[in-house]
Amino acid sequence: MIYLDNSATSFPAPEVIRSAADAMIKFPGNPSSRHTLGLEAEKELESCRKRAAKVLGVESKEVYFTSGGTESDNIAILGGANIKKGRRVVTTAVEHPAVMESMKRLEELGFEVIYLPPEKDGGVTIDAIREAITPDTCLVSIMAVNNETGAVMPVDKIKPILEKTAPRALLHTDAVQALGHIPMSLKKWDVDMASFSGHKIHGPRGIGALYVKSGVTIHTPSLGGGQERGLRSGTENLPCIAGMTTALELLKPEDFELMAGLRSRLRDGLLSIPGAVQNGGEGSPHILNISFPGIRSEVMLNALSLRRIYVSSGSACARGAGSHVLKAMGAPLADNAVRFSLSRYTDKTEIDKTVEAVKETVTELRR
Amino acid sequence: MKEILLVKYGEIILKGLNRRRFEELLISNIKKALPPDSYADVRTSQAITYVEPAEGADVDGMVERLKKVFGIVFIARAGVFPKDMDVILREGAEYLVPSMERVATFKVEAKRSDKKFPFDSPAISREMGGAVLRRCRHLKVNVTAPDTVVRVEIRDKEAYVYADVARVSGPGGMPTGSNGRATLLLSGGIDSPVAGYMMAKRGVEINAVHFASPPYTSERAKEKVIDLAKILAGYTGKYSLYVVPFTEQQLAIRDNCPEEHLTLIMRRMMMMIAARLAKRSGSLALITGESLGQVASQTTHALAVTDEAAGDVPVFRPLIGMDKDEIVTVARRIGTFETSILPYEDCCTVFVPKHPTTKPTMDKILKSQSKIDMEYWVAKAVEETEWVVIENE
Prior knowledge:
heterodimer, A: Aspartate Aminotransferase, domain 2, Aspartate Aminotransferase, domain 1, seven-stranded mixed sheet, 12 helices, 13 strands, globular, B: Rossmann fold, 2 domains, 13 helices, elongated
C-alpha cells in the first residue's frame, strides 16, 4: 500500500497512539471535577497545553483545544467578526469549506464578505489583499496553505496593512495544512487567531486547537459549560489532546525538506507524462496537484486504488460539481486533477513506484 | 396478553385450482420472511392465514416484515381470549381501547365457526357492542357507515377480537415464486430496483445482474448496488447478484464501433450476457428498468434493437409506460430512492456518445456491431462473472 492522501488524513504516529491510550488509562476523570481524579486530569490538560504552546511558540494561555480544524475556524470567524468594528470581511475564494460556510453565515448576518480570487499558482497576492482591506474591515481570514494545491499565502505580510488601514480588525489564518509542513511563526506572522487540526499531523481525529492572541476577545458561538476559558464548551477530550500534543512535539523542520525533495521527485516523474499539467506552483512541500488530460479524476483515483495506491481527486465531489479551488484558479483541466499529498513517512521507493503506476495507468486508460 | 396475526391475502383466492399451491407458497414465504423462532404456528383456514407468535416474540417487528410479503393485502393484529363470554367481553373491550380511541363510530361483526358456543352471532355482536360502549364513552354505534368494524371470531379453541382500524396494509400482489424466475438488470439508478420490485410483486422470483467497469466505476458504486439489492431482498427474499466485469467490453466497443451507436451496442451486449446468465440460473425472462423515451437508448426504435439481442428470452419492462415522477414515488415508498441517488458513476454513463442515435435500424446496428467479435466478448464476460448472495439485513 502507498498512501498519498495525507492532506485528507494522516496515519497516527505510534507515539501518538501510545500517549492517547496512556492518557485514557491514567486520567479518567473530568478536568472540571473538584475531586482528586478531576484535579489530576486538569493538571495533565494544562501540561499538554504548555507543551503544545511551546511547539507553537506561543503562551499556553493562548492555546485553546477544540474538536478540530472545522470547529476552530467556526469559532474564529463567527466569534471574530464584529459588526461594531466594521461590516467588511476579507477572505479568499479557495478556503476550506469550514471557512467558506462560516463566511456564508456572516453574509446572512449582514456582513460584506470579499472573496479574493487566486492567481494562476493558486495563491493570492499581498497587493490583492491590501486593495481589499478598507477602514470598515473587521476580520481578515486567509489560509496559510491551500489544501488542494499547496499554495502558500502571504499571511505574514497582512498585519502591517491592517495596522495602517483597519487597526481594530482581527487577522485569522486557517493553518491546518501549514502546520508540520512549512516554517511557521505565529508571533512573527502576528496573526490574532490560527486554526490547527490534530489528524493532519499524525495526531488523532476529533481534536484541534485555536490560537487566540492574548488580549484579543472574541464572541464565541460555542456555548455550554464554559470549558477552555469559555471559548470552547464541552468536556475536554483529554486522550486526544495528549495525542495531539505528542504529534506536535514530533514535528521537525528537517522533515519539511525531506518532503520537498520527494515532492520534486514526484513532480518531475509525473510531469514527464505527456500532457500532464501541474495545478498551482511551488507551494507547501507535501501537496502536488496534477491533471492528466483525457482521464477523469475519479477514474484515475479508482485505477490507482486498484493498485493499492491511495490519492485524492482534485475535487471533493464524485460527479458534476468540481473543485471550487481549481475553478477559482481557472485551471482548464479541473476535472482531470489528482492530488498527491505526502507525509514524513513517505519514502523514495514509494514515490518511484507511484510514478511508474501512474505512467502505466495513463497508458492503459488512454489506449 | 396473547395476540395472533390474521393475514388476509388477495387475488390468489381467484386462481381456482392453483389456489392451494399459492396458499402453501404464501405460508412458506411468510415463514421465510419471519425470524425462525418468532412464530409458533402458521396455518390457513377459510382464506385467512393465521400467524401465531411464539412466546415473547417481537410482534411489531413481525408485522413490519409481513408488510413486505407479496400476496398479503392486510395484516390484522388480534387479541386471543379463552372461549368464555364474560372474559371475551371484559378483556376484549379493554384490548380494543387503543384502536377505538382513533374512531367515533363502530359496529360489531361476530363469526362463530364453533356452533356449540352458547351464544349465536347476533347475540355476540350485541353483547360486545354493549361492552365496548361501556368501556369507551365517546363511541356511538353506526351499523350503516361505521368508522371501524370490531370483529369477534369464535374459533375451535379460542376467540379472536380486533378492530379493522388496527389493520395494516401489505404490499398486495402475488406470492413470490408463483410466477417463475426472472433476471433483473440492476444498474444502481432509480429505475431498475423499482422494476425488480414490480415484477417480484407479480410473483416473480428474481435474481440480478450488475455490470461493473473498474476503474471507470468505483468500488463505492458497486457497494451502492449491493446496498440497493439488499433493500430489494426485503421484498423478494434471498437471491443471487451476478457482477459482470465489463470494462474491456466497453473499451472494445468504444475503440471499434461508430460513436453514435456505442450505447446501443453496449446495451445489446448487456442483454446477451444477461440472457445467457438467466438461462444458466434457471430464469425464464429478463427485467429492465427501461421507460419509453426516458433517454436516447429507450426510444421505441432503440428498444426494438435492444430487444432483439435477448434472443428467445422475453424482456419484462414494467416501467415502460411510467413517468419519472411516478417511478420516483414507488422508489421512495419501497425505500430504494435515497440509495439510488448517491452520486457514483454507473457503467452506462462511462462512455456516452455526444450524439447518440435515437432511430437506429437493425441492419445499421448489426453492421456497426460486426466491427467486434460479440460472441468472444459475451463469452468472456459470462466466464469472468462473480456472484454474491444478497440477503436483507
